[in-house]
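Hey all, quick one. A colleague (J.T.) asked me to put the pyridoxal-5'-phosphate job into the tracker so the inputs and the structure tokens live in one place instead of scattered across chat threads. No bug as far as I know, just bookkeeping. Sequence used:
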Amino acid sequence: MATLNPTLPSKKRPVSSSSSDPFPAAKKHHPHAEDPVAALANARHEFGEHGGVNMSIEASATFTVMEPETMRRMFAGELGPDRDFFVYSRHFNPTVLGLGRLMAAMEGTEAAYCTASGMSAVSAVLFQLCSAGGHVVASRTLYGGTHTLLSNFLPRTCNITTSFVDIRDHDAVDWAMVRGRTNVLYFETMSNPTLTVANVPELCRMAHDKGITVVVDNTFSPMVVSPARLGADVVLHSMSKFISGGADLIAGAVCGPASLVNSMMDTHQGSLMLLGPTMNPKVASELAGRLPHLGLRMKEHSNRALVYATRMRKAGLKVIYPGLEDHPDHATLKSMAIKEYGYGGLLCVDMETEERANRLMNLLQNCSQFGLMAVSLGYYETLMSCSGSSTSSELSQEEKELAGISPGLVRMSIGFNGTLEQKWSQFEKALSRMQDVSKV
Ligand SMILES: Cc1ncc(COP(=O)(O)O)c(C=O)c1O
């Protein structure tokens, strides 16, 4: 069946940019220096069917043709989505493809396609890049779901095994890549929950020397870091987080070379086509409307996280935030981050015991309204969870210790509602209640 070709023009749709290339990001010769917000603004603007300023929601599962010959040509691969010929929405859908083009522009990749969840983006890429018996080298600090996929599910179902390493220990990463017949080096730009930052350019160089594909989950740091501009082959997102910003949708994206996206859509061998984690076009339309203000939102998430981390530290709390100069990865993040977007919206407070962590979160939610006890991140309200007993509870005690997850670690995704000072006074109120109780 027909595939995407980043160089072919669209046949029917009006476009605002002078280029009708479906993937304008592919043309940039110096993508490294490019700001993702500028790249998004340069991307082709998809208008609605009747000239609407927003693209239409193509709410069709299947598509008709004017002549029977067209159907034959689509299945022969002669006509495809680049020329506005669509077959069936589990394959390409125009609205989902429109969002994919924006994601490709933002991440500086040739192509992108969006999926029903972040986990389906992660699993579909691993299924596509590894065959039975394949090997992955992965960071030992990963989102719990991805960690379990790699440590339990993939070995059981298809004998794809993973060596987990400390991604900051480059000798260990190198050794693990050489030892197995490695297909993929997998890590998160900024990883859950201890906010370890991977040195993307250096890790890419090491993997590429050995012909290994680098897959980076950039869910925690959209705009702040652009892994593909730093050398990564594939960038993944859970769009359920900062990109959505509303804590109301589950969605994911795979950004990478057009050859990879096309291979994932292949009718005989494609993981997206055959496993079918398809994004609903109504969700794609929602998300396309939120991407233009992602840059503004990230600036404010990061600004408040830095201010609060600094003040929490001054108040005597044990804070982990990569924007603080004494964070072990501060220099690495500074060297990769685009300055305007700060150091990200997540910080951790180590309360040492789960009991103290729960007491603080309870006061912050139920006494002072600083935030909500909930997993996930990227919402306009601050979200708080005790990582060891929630998003990382899949890890064994030993794995938690190796990943530096103390039982009292509270992860906070800092929101931007209310004023900065109003929210800070709510934090102080809860903290002083906590200190009063400990004195009794
Ligand atoms: C870093 C990271 N990757 C992937 C996922 C999975 O995303 P989703 O919940 O959208 O399937 C999550 C979140 O839950 C995450 O935090």
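Adding what we noticed when we looked at it: The pocket of pyridoxal-5'-phosphate is lined by residues 117-119, 122, 143, 145-146, 188, 192, 217, 219, 238, 240, 250, 252 (CB under 6 Å). The radius of gyration is 22 Å.
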